[in-house]
């Protein structure tokens, strides 16, 4: 019996040892561990997650990890490195990188058995280029640029990091804003060889980009004027109104020093209209600008002097409407009869009046369902017309035009019954 018991214990011990080794081996063999690292800029579920990104110094980045089959799997340690140096010790975290350059950020996972797994991200930290908006040629508003020779443009751009390639987007436009040049340059200068028209204004702009398509915060924007022949001059300007809701035709008259009209222009129907008059000799002049039809806008008269080889650009001319709308009742009377529909005339020569700028009150009650068609304001009055009244009742119309001039007019509805008739009801 003792031999049998000892033999049984030996067999059990052998089986137990064999099962334990097989369990440990199988656990290690079946643990197919994988790690993945990504970077994003937001915790939103739909935010893009990537293996690489380009950011500016100080931008916040969110680093995320995935461990398969689970982050709770047994491990010895996990950590992050940037360019081989310690960076973080969490699975996921938010952090900024201030040092410009190309960086390798790696997530490292050491499993329970000492095997190391890792995944690497590429992060480029770059500052957008800057443009010197004060020092460039030709200087802003330069006069007398030769129209029939090559014109040189030059400016200054900088890379704050001193690491990246910089490109300049150069655009040259004529006085009608047509594009003459639109090009990308890897140098901060450009020569225009085709020649320009005399006595004209030209504008040019420069924006800068680095090799990661990061755009400069500054935009260089400048203008210059070409010369005339034999000392000739020109005058140019822009006309607008103090309302943005309507377009008008403008009339521009040029007068000499004796106030005789030299030239008259009529623009297209626009909200903003440009004009230029050339060639002109040296002397004193006056520009008179008005809306080219009956209107509430006051004309502007501007004196100026021209020297030689000059394009004089006047300040923007703003025509102002300070006349309120005119509100009249039927037959121009203030006392009117009650009717199913009351009609008033709301007239304004400074642009269309929006229905939202019309208000109608009957005594102290606001009337909502009126309509405005052209200059006619129709106010339905069916409900009130059915009520007999022996006294005069006020109805008030308020109108605000496109230039915010306000008009208010009160009319009086005639009684439609006598006092005895009202009390007999």
Short description:
The protein has 425 residues and is mainly β.
Structure report:
- The protein has 425 residues and is mainly β.
- The protein contains three helices and 34 strands.
- It has helices at residues 2-30, 382-385, 419-424; strands spanning 34-40, 52-55, 60-68, 75-82, 85-88, 93-96, 101-111, 116-125, 130-131, 142-145, 151-154, 157-158, 166-173, 179-185, 189-192, 201-210, 220-226, 233-241, 250-255, 261-266, 273-280, 283-291, 300-306, 311-313, 317-319, 326-328, 335-336, 341-347, 358-362, 365-367, 371-373, 376-380, 393-400, 406-413.
- A five-stranded mixed sheet has the order 2-8-7-4-5, with no helix packed on it. It has a five-stranded mixed sheet with strand order 10-17-16-13-14, with no helix packed on it.
The profile of the biggest β sheet is:
5 strands, mixed
Give, in spatial order, the strands making up the sheet with the most strands: 2-8-7-4-5
Overall mean pLDDT score? 87
Number of separate strands: 34
The low-confidence runs, each spanning 5 or more residues with pLDDT under 50, are 1-30
Tally the helices: 3
- Report, as a whole number of angstroms, the end-to-end distance: 127 Å
CATH architecture of the largest domain: Sandwich
- Relative strand content: over 45%
What structural category do the secondary elements indicate? Answer: mainly beta
The structural domain count equals 5
